[in-house]
Specification:
- The complex is a heterodimer of chains A (491) and B (441).
- With 491 residues, chain A is α/β, with parallel strands linked by helices.
- Chain A folds into 2 domains: 74 residues; 313 residues, Alpha-Beta Barrel (TIM Barrel), CATH 3.20.20.
- Chain A contains 15 helices and 17 strands.
- Chain A has an 8-stranded parallel barrel, surrounded by 4 helices.
- In chain A, helix 7 links the parallel strand 7 and strand 8.
- The longest helix of chain A has 26 residues.
- Chain B has a single domain, classed as Alpha-Beta Barrel (TIM Barrel), CATH 3.20.20.
- The model of chain B has no long low-confidence stretch (mean pLDDT 93).
- In chain B, strands 2-12-11-9-8-5-4-3 form an 8-stranded parallel beta sheet. In chain B, strands 1-13 form a two-stranded antiparallel ribbon.
- With 441 residues, chain B is an alpha/beta fold.
- The chains are: A alpha/beta (491), B alpha/beta (441).
- The interface between A and B is large, with 81 and 107 residues.
């Protein structure tokens, strides 16, 4: 089509030239991760205690015993440099200790390595110290965490830990590339598509076609509730979202007062301000209303017909009836909100809540009409594919982003607004943005690992694919039902 | 953070000093001469399990004052126990209690190895571990008339002295696969997947692919070596049959083992493998794995071995082929009690990997892939670093493994006699002899 909308006939040469330009402009999606060192290192994993008298005795004895064999005298029981400071073991460097324990085995009489309680005290019952350490590592390196010697944790566990994802011994998304996962797509669509297309007798489309936008990863950056977000945080999230081609959901007031509107920014409005939905400009593609109100939704829609409108729906009593109303009213994006532990106000976990929501719409034949997002309770890379399997299109991240920026959280961290955060003193925007980009690269790559193992070629196909999951409780019931004393469930 | 000084082979004096200190320290810790190391262990391999393994490796006996039976993972093997008979019904503890298993139950013309214990060594490739470790395991296998697998990294020349006890692994990268090593093998193992990284292939980090390792794998030094997933020659179980035909042409007497992970349809995979010609179905659960693996894969992809064994065992029975195939389990088998529980759930025997390494001193610090030093395991196990690999001295390591297997067999016989069974084969699939322990195990 020409600029005026009329059909243009191209010559073969021009068609070839334009095709070549189009082909040359293709680039495979990639997130540029870059090692980004800590600005506020976590407490050391280990405390290393060396008995000075024992050490002095050993050195004296070894100098005498191995006189002239200096390689022996100066050898250290550590390949990581804990005892390689200027005065060796008299001033060990616990920050280099990885817990191999060779020193404490070789010299049990005067070297002790202990887990550092300050490290273990990080986080809370859901966002554990281990998860914080993992996120920190992911944000520093931007790579998939790799370690040896197998799994170290509980057999199953509550919440997401009770779910395993399936794999295929033979089926691959593609035989191209080293593993085939190089060609897996993580693009998701945000918006609504009609359940069918309708045409008039002339073959012209008479109902609205799909109204969607695509983002390159199935996660968005979401603001916590209350006054936690600041101009600085909003700017960092916006920049990171632009870099990786996703969305940053930010309070509308921050967007307006700091001129943050962008195609990557989704202003969150109160229902009272719905009429302002169309006012942001600068490529804004979507807005969210902070709660469900049909009139406000219609107002927002009327303000700009090209905008995607999302509605935030807290998992509170009665959410099911609100969901039904919203779908019937034509809301294209429904953004569930759980607390930071992934629970509704009665303590039900999002794994079950999301499956319920997804199944409700499957049964009514309307699932494709809406996009499901969820914020709260997604704090590890494995939670991402697992929540998509439960029915989400994409997830909203907030706490993991703060952890990536090495913020220290205090207060009621289960609540979406009841906590405080303290950023590192040297938290400049560039550093913080790269840490979030790194985290995104790491989580996307880990998603590719899961999809590759399943043989699934695009993450859109994973949505609601509960057959791709195995629940520990079900498998145990199948395996152990004949065994005396097995009751099933949590026991 | 790499160390500035390049490692060199240690002098005799340094070697002696370091290994003496390591060995004495392991014994001192295992015999309780010092407090339990506060930073040792985790839910699956507790401090007591690690130290009891060291105790068994040092003495050949189970310890009196350490829990050498279960971990604290709160599920699976750690929630299962045996319904032992009353003491007056126990059998005598004797060598007459048969712990041997048959590896060829197809009844074909090929040989039928019957190791005296239901255990053989799992694949750990040259590169992921040193040749000292490989050779120690092979010599122990020879001593016990059982086997150990090469893993996917080739067949170091030194292993040929134990070739009757070395399984040649053929995996998706075909690293080091040669006609000679196929012809030498009593068993050829096709690794379709591995439990620690199911569906993800393998990856030897550049820092561990040194001169010798690269030569063995037909590559150049210090380049990351990827083993793709899956076999690019396999699109169906019929293609797998072609693989087996290929091996049969090269070595008509070799048994065929098929190592697979534990997806939802693992039961059907097992049946398909049998009909393609496999003698051994080797299930590898997600909790094991000795080499480096993505953390996300370890627990989240595929199911734990405890849940896969009964699924496959029952399906093979249903298909009427259970008696014709040997079912081997691995991936999280830590103790003799785990071995017996795996057999009671339906396996014929097990494959050990991590516990072999723990017997040789591993503390499970997880820095196998290199760690911050970039040199690999500080104990000399999962490394080919010129200095560190020397910490594992063969004679010592073989003795440790021999002792450890002695203690495993003793404990296995102890369990059997307390169940009134004179043969480990009578334990297969006997879930009626198990009980589920509620609460924190």
């Amino acid at each position: 089509m020409g600029n005026d909308g009329n059909q243009v006939t191209l010559t073969k040469e021009e068609f070839a030239r334009q095709s070549r330009i189009l082909a040359d402009s293709y680039h495979r999606y990639h997130i540029d991760a870059m090692e980004t060192p800590d600005r506020q290192a976590l407490p050391n994993n280990f405390i290393v205690k060396v008995g000075k008298i024992g050490l002095a005795k050993m050195i004296t004895s070894e100098i005498f015993h191995y006189w002239g064999k200096w390689d022996v005298v100066f050898s250290r029981p550590c390949t990581y440099g804990v005892f390689s400071g200027p005065i060796g073991g008299f001033s060990p460097r616990p920050e280099m200790c990885v817990g191999c324990l060779r020193c404490t085995v070789q010299h049990p009489e005067f070297v002790t390595v202990l887990p550092n309680p300050a490290r273990a005290a990080l986080g809370d019952s859901y966002l554990s110290s281990k998860l914080i350490s993992t996120i920190d590592d992911e944000a520093r390196k931007g790579t998939v965490p790799v370690r040896g010697q197998g799994y170290r944790g509980r057999f199953g566990g509550p919440g997401w830990d009770g779910m395993f994802t399936d794999m295929s011994e033979i089926v691959r998304p593609s035989r191209d590339g080293i593993h085939g996962r190089e060609l897996i797509s993580t693009v998701v669509d945000i918006g609504s598509k009609p359940m069918s297309l309708k045409f008039d007798s002339n073959g012209e489309l008479v109902n609205e076609g799909p109204k969607m936008m695509s983002i390159q990863v199935p996660f968005v950056f979401d603001s916590p509730d209350g006054n936690i977000m600041t101009k600085k945080l909003a700017t960092i999230w916006k920049t990171a979202a632009e870099q990786i081609d996703t969305l940053a959901m930010l309070p509308a007031e921050l967007v307006t007062t700091n001129s943050l509107a962008s195609r990557a920014v989704v202003p969150i409005l109160s229902t009272n301000d719905a009429a302002n939905a169309g006012s942001f400009g600068n490529g804004t593609r979507m807005v969210e209303l902070d709660s469900w109100d049909n009139a406000a939704f219609e107002t927002a829609k009327a303000s700009n017909h090209d905008l995607q409108i999302g509605i935030r729906l807290p998992f509170e009593s009665g959410w099911q009836s609100k969901l039904t109303e919203m779908v019937q009213a034509g809301v294209p994006v429904i953004h569930f909100v759980a607390n930071n532990h992934g629970e509704d106000n009665e303590g039900n976990f999002i794994m079950d809540l999301l499956m319920e929501a997804h199944n409700m719409l499957l049964e009514s034949g309307t699932r494709d009409k809406v996009t499901f997002l969820n914020s709260g309770g997604i704090v590890a890379a494995d939670h991402l594919p697992k929540s998509i399997i439960c029915g989400l299109d994409a997830v909203g991240l907030d706490l993991p982003l703060f952890i990536a920026m090495q913020a220290r959280l205090s207060g009621d961290t289960a609540s979406r607004s009841g906590y405080k955060l303290k950023l590192p003193r040297k938290c400049d925007d560039k550093w913080a943005t790269q840490r979030i980009v790194n985290l995104s690269a790491s989580w996307r790559d880990q998603l590719l690992e899961i999809l590759g193992a399943m043989g699934v070629r695009e993450v859109r196909r994973l949505r609601g694919e509960m057959g791709r999951a195995m629940w520990c409780a079900h498998l145990e019931a199948e395996a152990f039902s004949e065994i005396e004393g097995f009751l099933g469930g949590d026991e | 953070m790499a160390m500035s000084k390049d490692p060199v082979k240690p002098s005799e004096a340094l070697l002696k000093k370091t290994t003496d200190l390591m060995h004495d320290g392991m014994d001192a810790r295992a015999f309780g001469e010092f407090e339990m190391p506060p930073a040792l262990g985790d839910a699956r391999w507790t401090d007591e399990l690690i130290l009891s393994t060291w105790h068994m490796a040092a003495t050949g006996k189970v310890p009196d004052n350490l829990n050498y039976k279960t971990g604290l993972s709160n599920g699976g093997f750690d929630r299962l126990d045996f319904k032992m008979l009353n003491e007056d019904q126990w059998l005598e503890h004797s060598e007459d209690i048969d712990t041997s298993i048959s590896l060829n139950r197809r009844g074909d013309e090929r040989h039928n190895p019957t190791p005296p214990i239901p255990i053989y060594g799992g694949g750990m490739s040259y590169g992921s571990v040193s040749v000292n470790v490989m050779l120690a395991r092979a010599k122990n296998a020879q001593k016990w008339n059982t086997f150990m697998s090469t893993g996917e990294g080739g067949y170091p020349e030194q292993l040929y002295e134990c070739k009757e006890h070395v399984i040649t692994q053929v995996a998706t990268g075909y690293f080091g696969v040669e006609e000679r090593s196929i012809q030498a093998a009593p068993i050829v193992e096709f690794k379709y997947a591995q439990g620690a990284k199911p569906g993800l292939g393998g990856h030897l980090l550049a820092s561990k692919a040194g001169e010798e390792v690269a030569k063995m794998r037909g590559s150049v030094p210090f380049v990351s070596l990827f083993s793709p997933f899956p076999f690019h020659s396999t699109y169906s179980v019929e293609d797998h049959s072609k693989h087996i035909d290929w091996i049969q042409t090269v070595n008509p007497d070799a048994l065929i083992s098929v190592k697979v992970s534990t997806p939802h349809d693992v039961d059907m995979v097992a049946v398909g493998s049998y009909y393609a010609g496999a003698h051994i179905i080797h299930l590898d659960g997600g909790f094991g794995g000795t080499g480096a693996a993505p953390e996300i894969a370890k627990k989240n992809i595929a199911m734990p071995i405890e849940l896969a064994i009964p699924k496959v065992h029952k399906f093979l029975i249903k298909e009427g082929i259970r008696d014709n195939v040997t079912l081997i389990a691995s991936g999280g088998i830590r103790t003799a009690d785990d071995i017996a529980k795996a057999i009671a759930l339906g396996a014929d025997g097990v494959v050990l990997g991590t516990s072999d390494l723990v017997a040789m001193g591993c503390t499970r610090c997880s820095n196998c892939e290199g760690g911050p030093s970039g040199r690999g395991c500080p104990w000399g196990l999962t490394t080919t670093d010129i200095e560190l690999q020397e910490w594992i001295q063969q004679e010592w390591a073989v003795k440790r493994l021999d002792n450890y297997y002695t203690a495993l067999q003793w404990r296995l016989r102890e369990i059997l006699r307390q169940l009134g069974l004179g043969d480990v084969k009578d334990l297969v699939g006997r879930t009626d002899l198990l009980k589920y322990v509620r609460g924190d195990a």
